[in-house]
Amino acid sequence: MMDAARPIPSERKAREPTATDAEKGASEIYSARIDSYLRFIRWVGYPQGLRAVFMRSPALHPDLRILDAGCGTGVTTFALHAALEARGLSARRIDAFDLTPAMLERFRIRLASAEIEDVHLMQANVLDLETLPEDWKGYDVVITASMLEYIPRSDLARALGGLRRRLREGGTLHLFITRNNFLMRPLIQRWWSANLYTREELRGALEEAGFVEFGFGHFPFPHRHLDLWGHVVRARAR
């Protein structure tokens, strides 16, 4: 969610991505509410919860190739980067894409402020991954958080299948996505115009996407309150 007119060393150009009406609506909402969104996730401790999940992930090891799909302002990438540092690990390469230029601009600013140079950004649509460079594949880990809620429900399995094909054989998808429950319906579905999912719906979409091994986890203590918000899923590619 990147402004191809202002390239910097950590960016790659691509043709303008296409977007569905739902995705355009989500992009407009997040462009207008970036500050509200960032205040909210800081208040609930979302970045710390993501970092705690990555601190325990068996998928992390030295010299990883990582893709952040729907990176937004970089919250998930920064959480993963912090976990890698805390575990004494380093990534060989981190790529990230998003549909919304305003979110990518915030991400660029944060990267520059943190003096992080090993993250490469692009504007792209998860439903049109052919716009990504040819070498954006064969990843050890793909992470996607709070993004797939904003594509049409009928396209969820297709989007997951596209991400699976970006993984190397045996690679891992870390998926964080909003639950369908009484609390999230007014808070996320109505306010942020997002789709919500049950565990059964996700299980069906993952199977249709070609993932043969996956499991549902939790946010570690003291971040268990985030389980009220979302599913924590780890899936492996063939």
Say which CATH homologous superfamily is assigned: Vaccinia Virus protein VP39
Total number of strands: 7
Oligomer: single chain
- Using only C-alpha atoms, the radius of gyration works out to 16 Å
Q: Largest beta sheet, briefly?
A: 7 strands, mixed
Strand order of the largest sheet: 3-2-1-4-5-7-6
Separate helix tally: 8
Helix and strand content put the structural class at: alpha/beta
Briefly, what CATH class? Answer: Alpha Beta
Instruction: Supply the CATH architecture.
Output: 3-Layer(aba) Sandwich
Shape, principal axes of CA atoms? globular
Helicity range of the residues?
Answer: 25-40%
Distance from N terminus to C terminus (CA atoms, Å) equals: 28 Å
Strand content: 15-25%
Question: What low-confidence regions span 5 or more consecutive residues with pLDDT below 50?
Answer: 1-14
- Number of folding domains? 1
SSE topology string: HHHEHEHEEHEHHEE
Mean pLDDT: 88
